[in-house]
Structures are given as C-alpha cells and as structure tokens.
Amino acid sequence: MFTGLIEEVGTIQSIRRGQKSCVLTIGCRTVLENSKVGDSIAVNGVCLTVTDLGGSYYTADVMAETMNRSSLGQLSSGSKVNLERAMPANGRFGGHIVSGHIDGTGTIRSIEREDNAVWYTVEASSSILRYIVEKGSITIDGISLTVAYVDERCFKVSIIPHTQQVTALHDRRVGDIVNLECDIIGKYVEKLLTYPVADNTVSRISDEENSGITEEFLHKCGF
Predict the structure, then answer these.
(1) Strands 8-17 vs 57-62: parallel, antiparallel or unpaired
(2) Distance between CA atoms of 34 and 173, rounded to whole angstroms?
(3) What percent of the chain stands above pLDDT 70?
(4) Is pLDDT at 208 greater than 50 in this prediction?
(5) Cα–Cα distance, 53 to 79 (Å, whole number)
(6) How confident is the model at residue 103 (pLDDT cuts 50, 70, 90)?
(7) Alpha carbon 56 to chain centroid, angstroms
(8) Which candidate, 193, 77, 109, 95, places its Cα nearest to that of 138?
(9) Share in percent of the chain as helix, strand, coil (round to 5)
(10) How far apart are alpha carbons 174 and 111 in whole angstroms?
(11) Are the CB atoms for 101 and 182 separated by under 8 Å?
(12) pTM for this predicted structure
C-alpha cells in the first residue's frame, strides 16, 4: 500500500523492450534506502517489484497487462518518474489509501496558473469519472491530490507550486497521458451494493428492514 506522497523524482536510465513488455532501469537515490530485491516501489503510481538494484539505480519488470493499462509504455530514456516506496507499518498516512493498481489513464487538457496555485484539467473516460467526487481523492501519476471539480467529461485539481516542483508534474504538458487511480473505497461500496446473488437479486450488507439502513437513508446522510 502507498500514500500518494512522492519521495523522489527518478530518471529512466534505460528501457529494454520485449514484444509486449519491458524492463525499466531507474536512476534514483532516496527510494533505494533500506530497499531490497522483491520490494515494491510505485513508478508514476504503478506498483512495480524491484528485480535488481545498485548504488544509484534499480530495475523493474513491466508486464503486458501493465503496459496496456498505463502510460509506462510511453516512457523513454531520460523521462522523469514519480517514485514512492510502499508505506511502512510505522509510517505517517499523509495522503490517502493508494494501491498502486491504476484504473486507467487520462489526458491533460489544460494547465493554468491562479495566483499561487496551478490548475490541471484532466479528461478521462466515464468508467473512471464515475468514481471521482468533488473534494475526494485522486491519484495522478502516483500523487495524492484533492479533486476541486468534476463533470461528465473531466476533473480538475489545484496544486501548490511545491507539489509541482518536487514531482514529475513539472515536466507534464497539455496532451500528455497520466496514470489515474480512483479512491478504492468507492469501488468497494459499488460492488457490495450491486453484486448479484444466486436468486438474481441484489446483495445487501444487512437486512434493510431490520437495520433501518436504506439507500434513501444513506442519501439523506450525505453518502
């Protein structure tokens, strides 16, 4: 599990490409501290396993499924990437629950400055936007951010200059593809409320008549 707080911006040193996969060699320093082969490090929000490491680099395999669902296939030597080690049990939970298993990609449609803030507008598919709510959390290339606006076509985040400077966002341009991971809680709630049972009815966590918890009750309480 990750928090979406980027520890370091690394540099792609080389990419060894297979027919549908690749092996990344990533130059870095901070995330190598106390890391070993087999550990997980998120690269632009994608959880990858360390397969080899040295004093200033590590390697990770990227399989075909990951290439198809993320922007990692568009990386090249010299690309900057956001890096975060898996959260330790005694670590601070400064972002939100991030699995490192992205839901898909979006496209940056605009980047605008407003006083000390920078607004990013990201276009995404309806299958992703359905889980994004205003003031909720979204992960963009592994960065935990707060949603400031969302409609049926796009969403917007407003970030401080510090976030732009210490992450790979400073290299992103209009038209770039970014990895997106929605808040996992919404996906679990949807699955629990709509999962079909054997008699083709909809599964419920508890008997609504006995518990008093109904969909109408949840709506009234802001859920």
Answers:
(1) unpaired
(2) 34
(3) 91
(4) no
(5) 19
(6) very high
(7) 25
(8) 95
(9) 20, 40, 40
(10) 7
(11) no
(12) 0.85
